[in-house]
Amino acid sequence: MKASRLNPELRRIFRFVPNPPVTTSAGRSVINGLLKRVKTPSQFDGVSFNVVMLANGQPARIFSPPGSSPPDRGKRAALLNIHGGGMVIGKASQDDVHMADVARDLGIVVVSIEYRLAPQSPFPAALDDCFFAWNALLESAVDVGVDPARIAIGGQSAGGGLAAALVQRIHDQGGVQPVAQWLFCPMLDDRTAGRRELDAVRHRLWNNKSNRAGWKAYLGQEPGAADLPPYAAAARRTDLTGLPAAWIGMGDIELFYGEGRTYAAALRDAGVDCTLDIVPGAPHAFETIAATTRLATDYKARARAWLRNRLGV
């Protein structure tokens, strides 16, 4: 991918952005070790912040706007957020600044969760953790000031793929349903990783070799097999009817552009309200890497406006 295809606002930042070294266990260990050492703020302007431990030992980071305690308890909308990292790296704390902004700007409670990473914990471990967190949020909704009928599920990259799969699993379980799915450059389809011709394309930040390593670690087998278990890859599902409204955002020069567009079309064909926000010349996760550019801030503002409308805030 030539640098000339990058949006002019992003060229200086992304010209030399490397892919993370996730194709080896040593590389993954280094990245995850560094992430553990990164100090994150313990306070955020305009929101209260605390970390709670769920019953399964899984930490959850909770961002609450002012007024989410009595007498307003139980009246706030909420977002369950799932971090990215190709299924093999990442921590919930990497989304702290973004999630604090969302909680403050929309006046909602945000619960940002950890999950077990592959290959040490392959599918369905990560999805099981997300599902456990969803049920824990429902059970404690009133205590954390949340209206269980107004909860969205979202995430970025691998977190977006997990969010989409989680929505499917919750739909099949029945009961209380999320009102929206909020998917930033989601990692939806393992079959992309099986397309070897994409290996030669220089997709910035996340290329197809990294993608194959992530999917192989998560699935415990080479990606692109004829069949997968339900929920292993959200794009494999053939019946999408009845799922909640979706927002899918991504750049048009990133690896997941094709699978994102295809999934959005499939949702629409199934009668699901789906907004697709495509940013010209933007690579993977540009809204994080180039968070303060006007391109990224405008994109995030559109995403939040959509979520605000869906949550009724």
Automatic annotation (TrEMBL):
Domain Alpha/beta hydrolase fold-3, first and last residues per copy: 79-287
Example of a GO MF term: hydrolase activity
Pfam families membership: Abhydrolase_3
Leader sequence segment: none
Protein name from the UniProt record: Alpha/beta hydrolase
Organism: Cryobacterium mannosilyticum
Gene3D superfamilies reported for this sequence: alpha/beta hydrolase (3.40.50.1820)
Keywords: Hydrolase
